Amino acid sequence: MRLKDKVALITGAASGMGESAARLFAREGAKVVIADILTDEGESVASSIVADGGQAQFMALDVTDEAQWQAVVDATVSNYGGIDILINNAGLSGAVPDRLDLAYFDKLMAVNARGNFLGMKYVIPVMQKAGGGSIVNMSSMSGIIGQEFVHMGYNGAKGAIRLMTKSAAVQFGKDGIRVNSVHPGLMPPMRSSVSSADPKLREKVIETIPLRRAGSAEEGAYALLFLASDEASYITGAELVVDGGAVAA
Ligand SMILES: NC(=O)c1ccc[n+]([C@@H]2O[C@H](COP(=O)([O-])OP(=O)(O)OC[C@H]3O[C@@H](n4cnc5c(N)ncnc54)[C@H](O)[C@@H]3O)[C@@H](O)[C@H]2O)c1
Predict the structure, then answer these.
(1) For the chain, which domains are there?
(2) How far apart are CA 31 and CA 20, in angstroms?
C-alpha cells in the first residue's frame, strides 16, 4: 500500500478528481477526510469508501472560510492524531460565458486562491509540529498558459496556486514539508463548468491535444497520489502536468 496509515485531508472530495483521489487514497491505506461544501455527496462518498473496507470521514468545509478551516484541521488532528497529506483540490471553474465579470473574478480568487492559501496556513503548523508532510495543490494547465474560453480570474488564481506552491516549498522545506502542484488539462467537466461542458467545444479542444482525448478523474488522482506519497520524497516545488501533452504542444 502506497499510503499505509497516512492521514489525508482532501478538499473538494465530494466529486470529480477529489472524489477519485479519496477513493484511491483509501484503497492505498490512508485515513481520508473528505472536506467539501456538498454535504450529501460528501457523506455518500465517505460511506461508500467505508463500505468498501476503507477509512473515511466527511467534514463540511467552505475553503474560503478561515474559521471552518481551523475547525476542520482541529477535528482531523483530534480524530486521527495529525495530518500527513493535504490535497488542496476544491475549485470553481473558469469556463464561463462572461469572461470579464468582476464578481466572478472575486469568487474565483476566493475559492481557488484564498482557499488554497488558507489550507496551507492551517495545515503547515500541524505538519511542522510532526516533523513533515506532503501538500499537493491542484492548479491547472490554466496556471501555466492562457486559453481562449477561460475567465482570466481562473488563470490568475491557478497561476497564484502554482507560485504559492513554490513559495511554500522554499519556505517550509527545512521543516520536512514538501509542496507540489498538479496541472490537469481537459478532464471531465467541473460542476461549475459552462463552456468546457459543451461537447462541440470539447471536440475542438481535443483536436489540439497530442493524445487526442480528455483525461479521466482517475488519471488526475494518480498524479496526486504519486506526489502525496513517499515515492516523491525528494520532489518539492515541482509542477506535474496531466494534460495529454497539451502544454507541450
Ligand atoms: N475538470 C477539469 O477539466 C479541470 C482541469 C484542470 C484543473 N481542474 C481543477 O481540479 C480541481 C477539481 O475539479 P473537478 O474537475 O474534480 O471538478 P468538480 O466540480 O467535480 O469538483 C470540485 C469540488 O470542489 C468543491 N468546492 C467548490 N467550491 C468549494 C468551496 N468553497 N469549499 C469547499 N469545496 C468547494 C465542489 O463542491 C466539488 O466537489 C479544481 O481545483 C479544478 O479547478 C479541473
Answers:
(1) 7-237 (3.40.50.720)
(2) 14
